[in-house]
Design brief:
This protein is α/β, with parallel strands linked by helices and 408 residues long. It folds into 2 domains: 80-307, Aspartate Aminotransferase, domain 2; 310-404, Aspartate Aminotransferase, domain 1. The chain has helices at 8-17, 67-79, 95-108, 119-130, 143-150, 164-175, 208-218, 239-242, 271-280, 282-285, 292-307, 310-327, 346-358, 388-404, and strands spanning 53-54, 112-116, 134-138, 155-159, 191-196, 221-225, 251-255, 265-269, 331-332, 339-344, 361-362, 365-366, 376-380. The model is unreliable at 26-50 (pLDDT under 50). It binds 4'-deoxy-4'-aminopyridoxal-5'-phosphate. Keywords: Biotin biosynthesis, Pyridoxal phosphate, Transferase.
Length: 408
């Protein structure tokens, strides 16, 4: 069986032998959850301002205004400080970071997790630290993955969007030795397949099980960016959790800045992976640790996503909106909480977005070059904090403005 993995343990042993291994200082468990005093709950916030309903943000669970999340940030600022003031490896490591990382590892069902100052930094730090020989990347992967890949010396193979068969064909082709009996045997290389799970402009969901199967056939590792899925699926996890793929996906990455209502990124995986990142992920080593209020508010939001009913409310809103938009004969892409309404022409999309805005609905037009020519769209992303009346308001506005600009 070919193994194109990354042999992290032996890399770490080598570091240890050379006395180079860094560690985070051990922190006792935060048994009293001091920074996260339970609150009485309270009403869900209204996301929207008085004059507008926002249907375009990544605040999918509506938690940026949640009293409990805000209290967690306030308490962390008051008790731990507003900033980490140094790299985690110097003096920036706090109990709040460890509490969040424990909850992330529990949610992602991995040995451990590590936070970064952004999701962008998490992708750059992880991909450059792994330093693969070959990277197979979905053609629509996020810019932070694209940039991370550019910073490596890897050979890059782009496969068709969400197409596991194309991925398999490209891996099979690449697995042929360049020269029979030649010294460059691809079986000696480390291979990484990397994909977003939910694609934010198309709402598509990567076929992760099929991708894992294809990768396993050639011994490659799989890394999944769950930025737009974290907190929304099984027990507050992402697509990896909803498909029970924790043991087949080697690197689960995500951000704290969308459903988790905060700022920062994370990677969850094996003990060896996290040790490697602590030692070699430059945006972790050489950047100031996540701020304590950001870590504490993400923890509280994740706690709410795991144990509250907020996810159900989001998915009810998604179903209601999708049904209503399709009843208007609009083409709605995707299979996730992101509902791209395809308009086609960029001018039409702009007119529709402007008309919606006049009626107090914020849902911008997404145009080329962000999306291919002829597929301009309105990207609708409902939030758990929208109520029934908000959804009805959005649908009515689509109908009225759509008719006015001649699209319906
Ligand atoms: N990955 C994906 C798929 C994203 O959409 C984003 C943010 N737009 C990121 C990574 C980067 O996350 P952050 O904003 O936390 O840097």
């Amino acid at each position: 069986m070919v193994d194109r993995g990354f042999a992290l343990e032996s890399r770490l042993h080598q570091r240890e032998a050379n006395d180079l291994k860094r560690t985070l200082s051990p922190v006792d468990s935060v048994s009293e959850r001091g920074y996260f005093a339970e609150t009485s709950g309270g009403d869900l916030p209204v996301l929207e301002s008085e004059e507008a309903l926002v249907f375009a943000s990544n605040n999918y669970l509506g938690l940026t205004d949640d009293q409990r999340v805000q209290d967690a940030a306030r308490q962390a600022a008051a008790t731990v400080g507003t900033g980490s003031a140094a790299s985690r490896l110097v003096t920036g490591d706090t109990l709040v970071h460890h509490d969040l990382e424990r909850l992330l590892a529990e949610t992602k069902r991995t040995d451990r997790a590590l936070t970064f100052s952004s999701g962008y930094a998490a992708n750059v730090g992880t991909i450059t630290a792994l330093d693969p020989d070959v990277i197979f990347s979905d053609e629509l992967n996020h810019a932070s993955i694209v940039d991370a890949v550019r910073l490596t010396d890897a050979e890059v193979v782009i496969y068709d969007h969400c197409d596991a068969d194309d991925l398999r064909a490209k891996m099979t082709e690449r697995a042929e030795p360049a020269e029979p009996n030649g010294s460059d045997d691809p079986a000696d290389e480390s291979w990484l397949v990397v994909t977003d799970s939910v694609f934010s402009m198309d709402g598509t969901v990567a076929p992760l099980e099929a991708i894992c199967r294809a990768a396993e056939e050639v011994g490659a590792w799989v890394m999944v960016d769950e930025a737009h899925a974290t907190g929304l699926y099984a027990d507050g996890g992402g697509i990896v959790q909803s498909e029970s793929l924790e043991d087949r996906v080697h690197v689960q990455m995500g951000t704290l800045s969308k459903a988790l209502a905060s700022q920062g990124g994370y990677v969850a995986g094996s003990d060896a992976l996290i040790e490697l990142l602590i030692n070699e992920a430059r945006p972790f080593v050489y950047s100031t640790g996540l701020s304590p209020p950001a870590a504490a508010s993400a923890s509280e939001a994740l706690h709410i996503a795991r144990y509250g009913d907020v996810r159900e409310r989001l998915w009810e809103n998604v179903a209601h909106l999708r049904d209503g938009l399709e009843a208007l004969d609009l083409e709605v892409l995707g299979e996730s909480q992101v509902l791209p309404v395809i308009i086609g022409d960029r001018r039409d999309a702009l007119d529709l977005a402007a008309g919606l805005r006049e009626r107090g609905i914020v849902a911008p037009a997404i145009r080329p070059p962000t999306v291919p020519e002829g597929t301009s769209r309105i990207r609708i992303a409902p939030s758990a904090s929208h109520d029934e009346a908000d959804i009805v308001d959005c649908l009515e506005s689509f109908q009225i403005v759509g008719e006015k600009v001649g699209l319906l």
